[in-house]
Amino acid sequence: MPSLFDPIRLGNLDLPNRILMAPLTRGRSTRDHVPTPIMAEYYAQRASAGLIISEATGISQEGLGWPYAPGIWNSAQVEAWKPIVKAVHDKGGRIALQLWHMGYLVHPDFLNGEPPVSSSVRTAPDHAHTYDGKKPYGEARALREDEIPRLLSDYENAARNAVAAGFDGVQIHAANGYLLDEFLRDGANKRTDRYGGSIENRVRLVTKVAQTVAGVVGPERTGIRFSPNGPIQGVDDSDPHALFGLAAEMMARVGLAYIELREPGPDGTFGKATVPPVAPTIKKTFGGPVILNCDYDGARAEAAVKSGEADAIAFGRPYLANPDLPERLAKGAPLNKDVMATWYSQGPEGYVDYPTLEEAKAA
Ligand SMILES: Cc1cc2nc3c(=O)[nH]c(=O)nc-3n(C[C@H](O)[C@H](O)[C@H](O)COP(=O)(O)O)c2cc1C
Description:
Layout: E1 8-10, E2 13-15, E3 19-21, H1 38-45, E4 51-58, H2 75-90, E5 95-100, E6 117-118, E7 122-123, E8 127-130, E9 133-136, E10 139-142, H3 148-164, E11 169-173, H4 179-184, H5 199-202, H6 204-217, E12 222-226, H7 240-254, E13 258-262, H8 279-286, E14 290-293, H9 298-306, E15 312-315, H10 317-321, H11 325-331, H12 357-362
Parallel strand pairs: 3-4, 3-15, 4-5, 5-11, 6-10, 11-12, 12-13, 13-14, 14-15
Antiparallel strand pairs: 1-2, 7-10, 8-9
Helix pairs in contact: 1-2, 3-6, 6-7, 7-8
Flavin mononucleotide binds near residues 98, 176, 270, 316 and 343.
């Protein structure tokens, strides 16, 4: 069986190892959601990943409600992404862009006071990060059926821009309680039209988005992320095995290159599972490469790949804090611990200053 350190082909991308960088929002763009030069340094430091999945990146202003997060809907953003992608390529790496619509998790402050959109009228629990600190979420309105073509054209525009910026591929963000997850899971989707109710109806929007994005980028360069197990940001489902089994089958029909899953265990530190693992069901109905994420260390990751449970592993917090993660895992070296206070802070601290093993030894 393969090891974490063996190459793998995802769609038409050849990865030198099976250690992926999971998408990590870091808030180092401008207030207008334009990427900044320090992001080139950060991603280039992590170029030895089999594949970098970028931080979630807004497809439209309607879909972006995170302070200083990047977007990909206008030409200033495309131009600013180009040197970042080039910096990763110059170091021999590969980078895919994660396409994001935050749905009901966009605070009205980002929308000139207008309500955000979701599958149904609903208010997210807890508080949003805004430019004026944490605030309770606003009530979302239900996206009308006649607005869906416009949403799809936003995805199409973003996908075209990702290609123009030079990305090796894209990942559709359908996880973590954001818009596409709000349509998928019945705890959030209360619609009575053909986008709600049955499982077939609830997978319709994500399937159309996948077809639209793959139509621009190529299915062999398009992946998708789900978080099938357990509640997150107020979104959950009553029958995840049936729902995500069908969603994965639809993604296979579109021909996507891979599915990535954030699936914690029952004691997960980034969400908690509430049903038995959904990954095996998804792996069966998808048939292609499945990448697993959440709470992996080197030993668990190697065991998951060796057993065939996963084709590759995506690391989030370990990658944030260890630019040379594959080299450290190969040596069984200790890992730097990520510092939560600088996850979303601006500037270089806790961003580009985590040392490699060699730098730590030299210091
Ligand atoms: C600071 C931070 C930012 C994150 N941003 C994103 C994101 O932009 N998109 C996404 O799908 N998940 C995001 N996540 C979730 C991670 O991709 C990953 O699923 C999570 O950290 C669990 O993996 P880990 O145990 O390897 O850290 C984020 C997590 C953290 C800690």
